[in-house]
Please model this.
Amino acid sequence: MNETASLRARAEIDLAALRANVRALRERASGAQLMAVVKSDGYGHGAVPCARAAREAGATWLGTATPHEALALRAAGLDGRIMCWLWTPGGPWREAVEADIDVSVSAMWALREVVAAATAAD
Model:
């Protein structure tokens, strides 16, 4: 075994525990919508499996940082509300609009891009 391999950290996510946590939050906030944030590949635990588990347990929204992350969830077959909140100029905004992804806008240049994307979308 190579020396650096023994120094690597490894984390495993217990999807049953994730589902239990989402259910517990849903019980404590009955009537409210719940967003499970799975940005940065589910914080390194796999965005798609975490998103699926959260949805199964009642999460009504999924949150991602970037449109690329949100589009990856759509490509994996996840439906329902998905929101992304970080903008980069020239990002895949038309694709996000066409994939029914909610986006936030925090600057005028971003508003101009999202309006253009929404206008150009099918």
In short: The CA atoms of residues 17 and 53 lie 9 Å apart. The longest helix spans residues 15-28.
